[in-house]
Write a sequence for this structure.
């Protein structure tokens, strides 16, 4: 059986990679992928603590986070399509304000 601290180190590494992607990338699709990495790190933590305490509550919350991530991707892809249609690029620094 793998110790819980290894799962926590893995989650911290995945979260740091996602945070690095959010802070350094300017493309909207990279933002979405980085946020997904950060949500997956949260899922790893939830499931690791669920296993450690012998309770299924963390796994239930992880399912909710997965549903939240799916909704976030659906809305994010819609925003990326509107961004590309209006400005011709997916760089998030190009549009200064969203207007009609």
């Amino acid at each position: 059986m793998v110790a819980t601290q290894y799962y926590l180190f893995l989650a911290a590494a995945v979260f740091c990679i996602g945070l690095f992607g959010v802070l350094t990338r300017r493309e909207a699709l990279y933002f979405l992928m980085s946020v997904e990495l950060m949500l997956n790190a949260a899922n790893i933590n939830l499931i690791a603590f669920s296993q450690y305490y012998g309770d299924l509550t963390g796994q239930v919350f992880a399912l909710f986070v997965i549903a939240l991530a799916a909704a976030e991707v659906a809305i994010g892809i819609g925003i990326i399509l509107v961004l590309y249609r209006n400005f011709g690029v997916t760089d998030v620094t190009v549009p200064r304000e969203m207007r009609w």
Q: What stands out?
A: The chain has one domain: 4-87.
